[in-house]
Write a structure and sequence with these properties.
Chain lengths: 59, 357
Amino acid sequence: MPLTAKCKECGADIEIPDDALPGEIVSCPDCGLEYEIVSIQAGKVELKLAEEIGEDWGE
Amino acid sequence: MNYQDPVAFLLEILKIYSPSTKESQVSNFIYNYLKNLNSNDVYQDNANNVILKVKEGSPKIYMIGHMDTVPGELPVFYDGKNIYGRGAVDAKSALSVLLHAALNLKDLPCGIKFIAVTDEERLSEGMKEILKHEEKPDYSIFGEPTGINNVAISYKGRLLVKLYFKTNPYHSSSPLEEKTAFELMIEEINNIQNKVRGLNENVTSYFDSVTAQVVKCGCGDSTNKTPAEAFTYIDIRVPPRFNTFDLERILLHGQYFVEDRLEPFSTSPSNELPRAFFRGIYSVLKEKATFVKKLGTCDGNVLRSYYDIPIIAYGPGDSKLSHTDQERISVSEYLTAIKVVERSIRELCKNRQKNIN
């Protein structure tokens, strides 16, 4: 069974890929809120809200 | 030169000065380089693009770099650490990274094409020609200088318009019976910028803001006559919450001409393509990748205007040096980027195969 976490905004299940690494971004399938994986071990995953993605003016 | 030597190859393509519309020599060089590597599936098209079919299979992945540069020839040399020259950053290093990574991926079950396009720095005529004869890919990676830790996942779009105004001319000393073409132009520019301010209410980032900059304007042909004609070019930058047609409808009326239209795109960082690059960067550099949003445009915007597929840009180099006379690339960063791209495409194919099985 795939590892999941609850979205803090809407309560939907967020599926965590089985090969996910800390630092990766996962999105809530319902509301689109993005989370960063803080840690993943022994079938438990800790998420935090993803920081705003940086901007670069170039091409 | 030694074939399949990425440093020698980069030096050779930098020595061939190739501003937009003058890419035929560099195009021929890349074509012959690939032919000499026993690549039979390489061809050039009507726009001087070079297309290498690395491998048939699924999913279809396009790795696209541009051969042209901005104008301004610079001396090309290698000081043992960095390579200098026009295009060293934007974007012959990234093009060569994609090419040499692609050549190492023949064992994969994926369909991989490497494409070197022309005219990216001008009107994207090369990319537009590719879209006439190549089928829809499933993923596309564009070679642009993001730095080896960074992956660009979003680009703003662009709507370049020319507004035109015409009235009657009057003696400049006379009481005016109507607005001059210049006054109409200023009024319309103010109208557009007021509407833009409204669209940006509560928006806090540049990336998500609409911008409309006057980039060129003109009027009048005499010093004692009011201008009967005026024109202005307005460069409207479009965040992914709009498309160019939305903004055309909201912002423009009267007589105008659309000179350029590029749709914005945004690939979710949790999509399998950015994920594969996250894993590729982690695997090679042992560091976390950073995702970035670009305020400018690239050929990815042209592709996105045709196909709704995941697109990213990646490549070595500091984008702040793009278009400057200080273009230089660290050879160590350049060679590392080849490993990152190769690793990332392998991750992408591995995950796709796993999902199919």
